[in-house]
Specification:
Radius of gyration: 16 Å
Number of domains: 1
CATH class: Mainly Beta
Structural class: mainly beta
Bound molecules: flavin mononucleotide
CATH superfamily: Electron Transport, Fmn-binding Protein, Chain A
Strand content: 35-45%
Strand order of the largest sheet: 3-2-6-9-10-5-4
Shape: globular
Helix content: 10-25%
């Protein structure tokens, strides 16, 4: 039976939640990476992602300028790196270098791939809408890459406050 409550109280029950890394590259060639939990597939043909990205994030600024980005699914071994990417701004630091996140060149965009991610999706910006308080960034996938190690599992946010961990199938994972 359901008990009526507030949206914020009910949202505490949504975990585990997927988390992705979004990479970008500035005009002067510096790469950046941020963590994003507000992500969904927005179209299958053509494949598209929609991301909720705060307009105060450096990533938002770089996407509006360069019109491209990469969506990477971090592996469950990348909890520390993902937390770092999600709690520091690339305005004043090189998060790839400081967190030890490996990068590989993408095929069609300047933003880098995340070397140890389960999968990477190169995206070009389609549109940004703002139905509520958060800009929704829509990107069309122009190239995709998957890690050769198919046993790698995805990282999830396991609780409010950005607690991160792997989620096994037996615990309700994908
Ligand atoms: C697990 C996790 C999920 C996050 N999800 C989002 C999100 O969906 N949208 C957002 O704007 N920020 C999110 N953040 C916060 C950003 O990653 C954070 O503000 C980051 O420092 C922005 O980096 P940038 O300024 O280099 O772009 C999340 C952080 C963590 C740790």
């Amino acid at each position: 039976m359901q008990k009526r409550t507030t949206p914020s109280e009910a949202l505490l029950r949504k975990y585990p939640e997927q988390v992705v890394l979004v990479t970008t590259r500035s005009a002067d060639g510096r790469p950046n990476v941020m963590a994003v939990g507000w992500v969904a597939i927005a179209s299958s043909d053509p494949p598209m992602f929609v991301l909720g990205i705060d307009d105060g994030a450096y990533t938002y600024e770089l996407i509006t300028r360069t019109k491209e980005f990469v969506v990477a699914f971090p592996s469950e071994r990348m909890a520390r790196e993902t937390l770092f990417a999600g709690s520091h701004s690339g305005r004043d630091k090189d998060k790839f270098a400081e967190a030890g996140i490996g990068a590989e060149p993408a095929a069609l965009v300047k933003a880098p791939l995340v070397a140890d991610a389960v999968a990477n999706f190169e995206c070009v910006l389609v549109e940004i809408s703002r139905p509520g308080d958060c800009p929704l960034v829509m990107g069309k996938v122009v190239a995709a890459h998957a890690h050769e190690d198919t046993s790698l599992r995805r990282l999830y946010t396991t609780a409010k406050g950005h607690t991160l961990g792997g989620v096994r199938a037996a615990a309700g994972g994908e």
